[in-house]
């Protein structure tokens, strides 16, 4: 009887070990599947991030993948005023609306050109004499790419603000690549194109927010 009992215990133990091995195989398959999902998303982002792969993180959760844009490296020391999370949401919303209404200038060349064309001196009470609102990315390297823009903004009394991520700024501006600076204008550059009334209100709100943040900032 004792031998039969010990034999049964051994067989039970072997069955448990086999089950645990099977579970291990199943888990490894699941992990492999999650990894493949992540690879697929990463492949889809390859065109956007091939030069700067560190701008996006891919997180796989239960078979679904989530892409998180993130700041890259250190922020420039002159990033002032720097939008906090709440203000950044309003700023990026304004950038999205401007891109939709075709009142957005992208990149250093376009923004600097618009700034230099604007008059020197104090703007009118309505803010109509300013070419727009400048939004800069604070995670730019080398910093010399944008270091002259806040100075130009100060000279021409154009309100400006920094956000933490060039990847988020590029995404808000409806571009496939990270963007160092954009300018949100109230009106389109083309005379025939009209902007939505909703955007006019968004622009006014954005102007108030950026002016408030930059009230005590001087270079």
Fold topology:
Layout: H1 2-44, H2 46-49, E1 56-61, E2 64-69, H3 85-100, E3 104-106, H4 107-117, E4 133-137, H5 149-155, E5 160-163, H6 166-172, E6 181-184, H7 197-213
Parallel strand pairs: 4-5
Antiparallel strand pairs: 1-2, 3-6, 4-6
Helix pairs in contact: 3-6, 3-7
Report on the structure:
- Helices cover 48% and strands 13% of the residues.
- It contains seven helices and six strands.
- Helix 3 (85-100) packs parallel to helix 6 and helix 3 packs antiparallel against helix 7 (197-213).
Descriptive key words:
single chain; 219 residues; alpha+beta; four-stranded mixed β-sheet; two-stranded antiparallel ribbon; 7 helices; globular; Ribosomal_eL8/eL30/eS12/Gad45; H/ACA ribonucleoprotein complex subunit 2; RNA binding
Q: Strand fraction band? A: 5-15%
First and last CA, distance = 93 Å
Return the average pLDDT rounded to an integer: 75
Helices, by number, come to 7
Low-confidence stretches: 21-39
Query: Which value, in Å, is the CA radius of gyration?
Result: 27 Å
- Quick one: overall form? globular
Helix and strand sequence: HHEEHEHEHEHEH
Write down how many β-strands occur, each being a DSSP E stretch of 2 or more residues: 6
Structural class: alpha+beta
For the biggest sheet, the summary is: 4 strands, mixed
Proportion of helical residues: 40-55%
Strand order of the largest sheet: 3-6-4-5
């Amino acid at each position: 009887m004792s031998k039969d009992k010990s034999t049964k215990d051994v067989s039970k133990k072997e069955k448990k070990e086999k089950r645990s091995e099977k579970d291990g195989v199943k888990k490894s398959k699941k992990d492999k599947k999650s990894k493949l999902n992540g690879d697929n998303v990463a492949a889809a982002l390859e065109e956007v991030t091939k030069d700067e792969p560190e701008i996006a993180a891919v997180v796989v959760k239960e078979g679904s993948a989530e892409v998180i844009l993130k700041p890259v490296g250190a922020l420039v020391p002159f990033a002032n005023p720097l939008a906090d999370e709440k203000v950044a949401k309003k700023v990026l919303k304004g950038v999205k609306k401007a891109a939709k209404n075709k009142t957005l200038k992208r990149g250093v060349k376009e923004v600097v050109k618009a700034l230099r064309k604007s008059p020197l001196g104090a703007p009118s009470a309505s803010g109509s004499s300013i070419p727009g609102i400048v939004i800069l990315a604070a995670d730019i390297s080398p910093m010399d790419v944008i270091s002259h823009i806040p100075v130009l903004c100060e000279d021409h009394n154009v309100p400006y603000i920094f956000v933490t991520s060039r990847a988020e700024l590029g995404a808000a501006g409806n571009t496939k690549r990270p963007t160092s600076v954009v300018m949100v204008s109230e009106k389109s550059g083309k005379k025939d194109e009209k902007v939505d009334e909703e955007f006019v209100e968004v622009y006014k709100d954005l102007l108030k927010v950026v002016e408030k943040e930059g009230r005590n900032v001087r270079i």
